[in-house]
Structures are given as structure tokens and as C-alpha cells.
Amino acid sequence: MAHARTALSVNLNKVALVRNTRHLGIPSVTRAATLCLEAGAAGITVHPRPDERHIRAHDVHDLAALLKAWPGREFNIEGNPFHNLMDFVRALRPHQATFVPDAEGQFTSDHGWRFPDDAGRLRPLIDECRALGVRVSLFMDAEADQMAAARAVGADRIELYTEPYAAAHATPARAGQLRRFAQAAQAALDAGLGVNAGHDLNRDNLTDFLRAVPGVSEVSIGHALIADALELGYAETIRAYNRCIADAFA
Ligand SMILES: CC(=O)[C@@H](O)[C@H](O)COP(=O)(O)O
Ligand SMILES: NCC(=O)COP(=O)(O)O
Predict the structure, then answer these.
(1) How far, in Å, from the CA of 76 to the mean position of ligand 1?
(2) Please, which residues bridge with residue 194 across strands?
(3) What phi and psi, each to the nearest 5 degrees, are found at residue 160?
């Protein structure tokens, strides 16, 4: 079956990280969002961590307001629903909430939810999001045998945690990782889930990933993309990432 082209959601955490080192409001997170959307980003992602080391609560509110002027573009808020994520979801009703099982103060995301262990406590929060009209994506390791359980708990999508693939991309382990991610994505699709992907995706590894892994609806990319934007500017960077996606579907 032919799949729709993958949407690029730009994660702006690292713009906020730089901004927070002074009290001057630069670089501006909302200005970055506008420039990325103008250049063709399909959406904006943020992961407001409880310690506010980068994205702060006001950024999430400012971006939700900004996205209202961009119909068809999506706002994705990531976080742990047992910490601060649900407050944002209830107040702002983003297009998508991505549940991530990070500890408070965690260095960066490094694993997904586990089933059956997490099912009971996730189900009511997923139900609440869906009642609010918010799509739920669960951050998951690339394990095919976990996908039916992610669907059974009520999720709309899963986000494949791609760091193990990214770390293997320049090594002989790449082919094995791609097989693992393709099997996990196919299992998710077979279970009726949409498939997102993210973490350490970049201009070098993105096209190979999308060629090998079926049916990826959205990639959220932050760290490498913002690093590229420091050199190329936001507009050229978004065009470059969209070319990587287009090449995978050519
Ligand atoms: C969920 C995920 O894989 C990453 O988006 C993560 O949110 C990045 O967070 P940091 O930018 O804090 O490393
Ligand atoms: N969900 C992944 C994301 O938003 C960005 O991850 P990264 O590109 O900053 O590693």
C-alpha cells in the first residue's frame, strides 16, 4: 500500500536552550517557529521538561497561539503525562501529545514505554486526551512485539525511538537496525497504529530510514536540525530536510 509522505515537525527545544542563557529573549522561539513554518515545516514540536532547562511554560502557550494562525500545521507536545504534560494538554489541546517515560531531570529521552507494565496507568490518560480531541502517540523502542499492546491501551500512534538506528547508521550494524525498525513499524501499522519517529535523526540518516521503514507519518527533529540552522539558517535547513524526505519517496 502506498503511504502518504512523511511530515517534518521541527523540535525547538534547543532554540529555547540558547535563549535561556541570557535575559534578552533571543533567539526567539516563536520567531524560529514562524521561519520554519514559512519554509515548509509541517509542524512544531516541543518537550517542556519539568526543570524548564529549555522550553518554558510560556513558550508552550505562545506556540499554541501561534499555530492557530497556521491551519493544517500541527503542534506536538512531548512529555511525561505523570509529570507536567497533561496540564498543557488540558489547557491547550494540541493536535498531538507524545507520551515519553522520562524521569524528571533526565539528560535526554532514551527509552520507550513497556507493556504490560505501563498499560494500567496510561489508559485513563490516553482516554482523557482522546476525549479532548488530542491524538496520542506513545514513545516506544523498536520492538515489534510491543505494538499490539500499544494499540490495545488506546494510542493513535507510536513514535519509534530512533537513537539506536542513528548510532548505527555509519557502522555495519545499520542494516540490522533498519530491519528491526521496519519490523516494528509494520507491526504498528498492522495493529492499526500510525507511526512517528524521532531522536537523533539528521540530514545524513533520514532518507535511508524513510526508505527502509514503512509508513512513517511524521518525524520530529530538533538537535541536529537546529545545529544545521546555525550554519544554514532556518529556511535553507527546512528545505534541506524536506528534500531528504522527498528523496525517500522518489
Ligand atoms: C522524545 C525525544 O526523543 C526527544 O525529542 C526529546 O524530547 C529531546 O529532548 P531534549 O531536547 O531535552 O534532549
Ligand atoms: N521526538 C524527537 C524530537 O522531537 C527531536 O529529537 P532530537 O532530534 O532533538 O534528537
Answers:
(1) 12
(2) 157
(3) -70, 130
Answer yes or no: are the C-beta atoms of 125 and 98 closer than 8 Å: no
**pLDDT above 90 coverage of the chain, percent:** 98
Full DSSP string of 78-140? EE-TTTTHHHHHHHH--SEEEE--PPTT-SS------TTTTHHHHHHHHHHHHHTT-EEEEEE
Residue 145 reports pLDDT greater than 90: yes
CA distance 235 to 45: 17
Q: How many helices (H) and strands (E) does the chain have?
A: 11, 8
199 catalytic residue (yes or no): yes
Ligand at minimal distance from the CA of 10 is 2
pLDDT band for 3, please (50, 70, 90 cuts): confident
pLDDT at 2 over 70: no
List, for residues 172-191, the tens digit of each pLDDT value.
999 999 999 999 999 999 99
Mean pLDDT, residues 106-116: 97
Give me the catalytic one of 74, 159, 169, 199: 199
Q: What is the mean pLDDT of the chain?
A: 97
In terms of Cα–Cα distance, which of 182, 191, 244 is closest to 215? 182
3-state secondary structure of 120: helix
All structural domains of the chain, each given as residue ranges with its CATH number in brackets, are 7-249 (3.20.20.70)
Asked whether 218 and 178 are in contact (CB, 8 A), the reply is no
